[in-house]
Fold these 4 entries.
Entry 1:
Amino acid sequence: MHGPRLTFLGGVNEIGGNKILLEDRDDRLLFDFGPSFSPRREEFYINFLQPRSTSPVKDLLEFDLLPRVEGLYSEEALHRSDLAYQPPRVHGLFVSHAHMDHAGHLGLVDPTIPVFVPDSTRRLLDAIESCGSQKYGDHDWRRLEDGKGVKVGGVEVVPLPVDHSIPSAYGFLIHTSEGTVVYTGDFRMHGPRAAATHEFVRRAAEEAPEVLVMEGTRAGPDPRRNFSEEGVRSGIDDILGKTELPALVSCYPRDVDRLTTLYRAARLAQRDFVIPLKTAHLLSSIQADLPRDAPVPGRSEGLKVYHRSKKVYYKWERPFLDDAIDAEYIRHHGRDVLLSLDLPHFAELIDLRPPKGSPFIHSMSEPFSEDDVDDHVLSNWIEHFGLRKQQMHASGHCSGPELHEVTRTISPRGVIPVHTEHADAFAGGGAPVRPPVKGVPMAIRT
């Protein structure tokens, strides 16, 4: 095969797990490197049954949950694997954003391979690593700046911000020896930074790209409403305005847009917004990258931190303990708070004892199926305590019609669906659809 080629090592017919290898002459670049949300992983690894830390690559290769790529993995990660260590044969790894399914396997990568991220993403990765089990490893970190091209060999990569449900999400314009490849990363058109996505689409259209590699999480059948962040805010305002009972909410702790929405809604309802210790740590760690109206402990009026009763607190938790509140405070001041409570911490309800009928706002994605395990457990807790569940969420991904609109605007010579279970749904966008086959190289030009 002559000319630049793309090999999709993950994200094919599945949600998440993007691992896109670009080869152009002697240059080999990788875009994103994370695990997928494929049910296949849960056929072998779930909850406390996980790949062994002493042989992670070996254990993941056993079930084809990791690509067999020479010159990519660190010698330590390859311990006991039948894939022999080789000096790096990948010249750069570009991370579109800090979600697990795009960055979660960085810890397996050879530390001498340059990893390109903006400073803001690096700070977020550091914050995530400092307060959990996720490890990204030591790397030759290289800085990306908005709109500024980076040359790796003969390939130039231009990072441009897009709107997504996590700070510092990027798409890329990739200039190869035979034209431009556009990679969207994960993106949406209906969030607070929609203008950034529209600018990315405009710049991509100017390139007249050979191919558009586009995520399609919500392509195909999608029963979810396409709420905007303003729509979520309006719904939460309505809920809080109609109750004097304690109000609880679950949301993604790294979705700063949602946390900001909840904080503003709480303040309008004359309530304090109460967040867990881990959320407080993340917000404090990246506060330099956040807008002034984002909630930050010690900076934002009406923001409190909730601490669970524990025998030992981690070092990163301790700075917040002096001013933190507990279950007893919530029991006595419940009508004055909006409490963020994640599913792993639902045991706190036993101490909180919210009155029956208290609203519980589920501000996360709806389950993809009725037998979703977490949703089943969540329902049991809500029923036991007599809470009133309300669904209020704005997706971090484009709807099907929005994906078609983006394709028509950019007008590529071809579109390659990734991060989707419904590649066939891309056919309505007006560009020839080129479904990838996992592990099989495809030329950027047809």
Entry 2:
Amino acid sequence: MDTTPFPEPESPEQERFWLYSRIEILALLSRLCSGNVPMTVYWGGDGECAVTLILEVNDGSGGLKLDMPGVERLGESMLAAADLVCVAFIDHIKIQFALHSPRRAVSGAYPALEAPIPERVLRLQRREYYRVRTPETLSASCLVPYSGEGGRYESLRVIDLSVGGMAMVAAPRHFEMSEASTIDRCFLDLPGVGTVTVRMRVAHLEGGGDDGVSRCGCEFVDLSAQARMMLQRYVQRIDVEQRQRPGGRRAA
């Protein structure tokens, strides 16, 4: 995931980031409103979009009012849409929600667009997905099982890591990796933090020439709260070390 204002696609992994509490949703929308935070609104299948602001958040009437775009064509197109997807940022946190059945309204003396308060809001904090390259001083490794009998593992070197997944240099001698395969009970060693048990899905493989070496990208599946905390601690530790180096910068 990146920090562009494009909507995030629906994903089971994002369920934990959705807010369903009306109190929390109203507080977040009110913050967007009071801060005059620019918001990009998308609709239709052709990527139509416009930048607007939240003018009013009214819990009593259950309505959210947006500033109508200055271009009349865009405003009419928004009103004709069945759904609008709104994206904004607060303190590097991505906020996303859908508005249904928009209708024409006014806010003070200004033309506006009104829709019901959304039932859920995505609150995605980017720091959870910062990816860091593992340095030699704190290099992580992953023990991947290759036998159904248990107790047989092959160690693969981790080259970058985030709370969402990791990339490894894969040249396994005892098994073959395949895209979309899911591997249970892998032991990820995080120097200075500890060892966590993870389940991972192979998202993509690159390389794999005559030498059998490839770059394997994996995403974590059903990550436990404790594993997430330890991964975040490791990522933060690497981040601090990289920042302290002369000319250091975060990995993209």
Entry 3:
Amino acid sequence: MKFILGQKMGMTRVFDEDGRSFAVTMIKAMPARVSQIKTKEKDGYKAVQIEAYKTGEKEKSIRKNEFRVENPGRYKVGQEITLKQFKKEELVSVQGVSKGKGFAGTIKRHGFHRGPESHGSNNVREPGSIGGGYPQRVVKGRKMPGHLGTDTITITNLKVIDLDKDIMLIAGAIPGPRKGIIKVYGSGEIAEEVVDTAAIEEQLAMQKMLEDDKEKKEEKEASDTTETPEEVK
């Protein structure tokens, strides 16, 4: 298993050799090293703990995170964790904490619709009825106003578009604010090339139309250049 701690730098757009554009998120790999190895016998589970640090006049620890691995014995305490273990076209999973948006109502938090604003109605942004005659209480799990965001979200099977030194470009959006710390891990699986059949059919149809137009133009030019018989006096 491959893993790294990174910092979300923002989003941009890149183009491949065929001119296709991809929305990507830039992740900057943080300097990290193995700080602890946990085994089944001693800790009850297998994991590798890595510690991200900030370099400068005095080295400072920033974050510690654990990654579950099947074979923690191949890691050593103090081993540097770098971005070199990842490759282009590889599928990875990312985990981050979503943006905190404070207390929110049902419209923003759950996508509820507004109520009528005319004919004396005062129920515009209120949630409406939250219970019935039985049971005489609010049912557990009812969608209500409350805290929105700051949830741990994991997105799987994202494609690594490019790697450059300590910068990783991953296709798609990633949870969390800018400069938020992201966990990136993967098994080394390579992404399969997705064939866009609709685009290919459209390209073939366009090519056939251009060829037909060219043939018609050539036929017209040939008919205009043919010699006409002399008029009989």
Entry 4:
Amino acid sequence: MVDVVDERRTSRVAAPVAVSSLRPLSSHSLSNDSWAARFQELPKAELHVHLEGTMEPATVVALAKRHGDTLDESTVAARYATRDFGAFIEAYKWVTSYLREPADYSLAVCRMGEQMLTQNVVYAEVTLSVGVMLLRKQDVQANFSAIREASAPHESRGLRLQWIFDAVRQFGADAAHEVAQWAVKLRNAGVVAFGMGGDELARPSGEFRHVYEYAAANSLHRVVHAGEIGGADSVRDAVEILGAERIGHGIAAASDAKLMAMLAERSIGLEMCPTSNLRTGALARYLGRAGASFTDHPLPNLFRAGIPVSVSTDDPAMFETSLASEFNTLSAMGLTYQEITRIGEGGFVGAFLPAPEKSALLQSFRAKAAALTLL
């Protein structure tokens, strides 16, 4: 997804194990229904999901009512039914306009948390469009305090949440730097990274080098949306100029063998969102065609090239998807069930967590996957 708006126990545990060191894939097979049922039982991680894009039609209707507008769920669903990038941008701008005060963000987080718990998500890094908050003259501190308070009940039920503060590329470097400053200010309250979405073609990465250097110097992780509608050079610049540790989307990397080798060598993760790539037209654009299907997605080639890959929903309500649905698309791409399970593990491998916490989550995932004969 892009952010585009006119006005964003502590016990001893083993060290993390690299994905490549796991035992070879077994040759057992499962029916689709059997695999899906078992996979639902696995703990899951999601690394690329925008809070604003998790708002189901019923949530939007409730927010609109708060602000004096009358909507019905069918109207919201119709606005969400996009099939190209421009229409998606307009839908995103419209729906985020109902997030106006802390209580609105609180409602969105409450409902997002319930969605995640239903899917057995135990860890998520959620992107917040702080660049949009600032453009609309909102109180970032108040909004984030409401978000953290609303997330507490879900965290007590086993959902660990961390937050990525996101800037909008086309708003420019000064606006991005203000977002980074807020991320630094609130990093001890759960902000783990600084990111940048928006139109990756609007401004060159070089304009934001100093912003990413500031984020790195202040112990924030760095992510960038790149290679979604842009080409392989956009991904390369995100890594070499901005020092990105993970790339949002990155489908265009599949067109450049040297770039794929670099991503694999440096363990730069790709946060893949297949349904999003179809619904925004990004995959068709990458292919140079009028349309595309899941069978056309380059995810298998990227994963089999040794690049760390995770799967996420991006904007699940807007794209009528779920994390379980996203993993189901991988079978259509020709990936084996064991490979899909490895990709599920990739969400934990790529998490911005201290080593002991990551190791604990990985061991829990592997133990459950082994018990379900999914590895």
